[in-house]
């Protein structure tokens, strides 16, 4: 069971965060929050999202699971404006989700959750390096690197006390180093891993809206990006596997 | 821009493409100012768009590339057959009704045509459309038969509230081949705002629309379990295709060997690829979309998603550009052959190099290094 009312903008933000990686997911309803976790087809990137009941104007739910066509949701939410109140109503027997806003009433047929990949269990990894940076600065760096290359190195230099990003194209090179002044926080443990910009570009667009993004790094290890949505009433985590340079 | 990317579109600014005009072969045709016989297809030129001219293709033979391949016709046979074909030209407004009737019919219609003067020999090649030898300006044209229309074609062309993209995918679902669909599109029988569309644009548009939709279905399917390498060759076009487990990615590497049609003195290599979305028109042009269609059809039939690296290597045996149907049929043939099954990417690369006869295609691939270096999250959950 799910019956809830939420600012359409907040809901759209949540859907966009998932849509950056997958086109469908299992959304779990719990008594005090909505949760989902999904990996992309190639098992390279994972998104975890939780949206607490406090993000909603009204929320009542029991534990359950629904299969959501994220691509379709994204199109529907495109019609809504900031400040519109969106009411979600799960019709369990019919396996439909009703979305009501401004007099419109959408009834969306849900996917059979058993046809969607099972929720992945997050790998247990230690990522000692940590930097906290504004989302827009991170997204800009990703966009700058994408101009010349298809991969980017993210790292922390403990000696220079910087968080840096570096990309190498066929002929060109770009480096951006951010010192403590430009960062919100830095845990100076040496780290460096290489990532595919294909994935980062889509994540970057979502992260650009966050004031602070926590970046966790290791040496040739996945990167974890964590940031708040819905004014702190929700949290998104992205995990992205690295590329290991051939020698 | 290199010849291998332009393929006779006239990007060099010369009045005639120096490569296609090599084929001004001689043909003894009795100059006649009328024609009565079969008109299996329609051709609309792109010159002067949107004020284009076009008309029926007139020949007693079939206009059916898959059949040409199945009958084992050689490249010389096909050029000979097409050299005898007459391309009627007229401004399209006057003839639209008759052209639509020809396009709708599932079997060739007979026409009676009077030309303004005896037809002239004018063998034209372009990279996308099969060549045509004779052309004549139409004074008067009558369609003699009634069109025989498939039920699906009838239903979909009659629906003017159906967008062209949906129409193409519905037709493809009804087992209407892309050759027929592009005929319908070129004569302005599909979509909400209907227009005559130049034939070479229609061919690629249909390949793109159908395969983009197939791609969206493939993305949702479970990944392939092993590496498969396919190979086939027609008319000096060797297609080698690696399918790798994973989400949909497509990369095509086109290699024009030395002394081949668009290659010239040195080898010319063009590569392009895509993920879920494709931005802009491919530098490989129509061939990219034709090959993608054939691969997507295969993946849809086995209900698996995969990463695709497709190599097209062209030798000097391919002496005349016959149209992108060559790549479509070559790739379809490749996917029909039984594949070499490999356990690892390195084995698959070695098999592909062996089948292609060379290995330097690897340096032009962006997808292969990506697959080799990209770790998955599973690698860290041990």
TrEMBL record, chain A:
Pfam families: PCNA_N
Alphabetic keyword roster: DNA replication, DNA-binding
Highest taxon above the source species: Archaea
UniProt signal peptide: none
Positions of the Proliferating cell nuclear antigen PCNA N-terminal domain: 6-104
Family annotation (Gene3D superfamilies): 3.70.10.10
Main function: Sliding clamp subunit that acts as a moving platform for DNA processing. Responsible for tethering the catalytic subunit of DNA polymerase and other proteins to DNA during high-speed replication.
Family membership: Belongs to the PCNA family.
NCBIfam families listed in its UniProt record: PRK01115.1-5
Subunit organization: Homotrimer. The subunits circularize to form a toroid; DNA passes through its center. Replication factor C (RFC) is required to load the toroid on the DNA.
Protein name, as recorded: DNA polymerase sliding clamp
Record organism: Methanoculleus frigidifontis
Lineage of producing organism: Archaea, Methanobacteriati, Methanobacteriota, Stenosarchaea group, Methanomicrobia
Gene name linked to the record: pcn
From TrEMBL, chain B:
Residue ranges constituting the Archaeal Nre N-terminal domain according to the UniProt record: 11-262
UniProt zinc finger (C4-type) residues: 3-17
Xref: Pfam families: Nre_C, Nre_N
Domain of life: Archaea
Coiled-coil ranges from the UniProt annotation: none
Residue span(s) of domain Archaeal Nre C-terminal: 277-380
Keywords linked to the UniProt accession: DNA damage, DNA repair, Metal-binding, Zinc, Zinc-finger
InterPro entries: Nre, Nre_C, Nre_N
Its job: Involved in DNA damage repair.
Note on domains (UniProt): Contains a predicted C4 metal binding domain at the N-terminus, which could be a zinc finger DNA binding domain.
Similarity field: Belongs to the Nre family.
Protein name listed in UniProt: DNA repair protein
Organism in which the protein naturally occurs: Methanoculleus frigidifontis
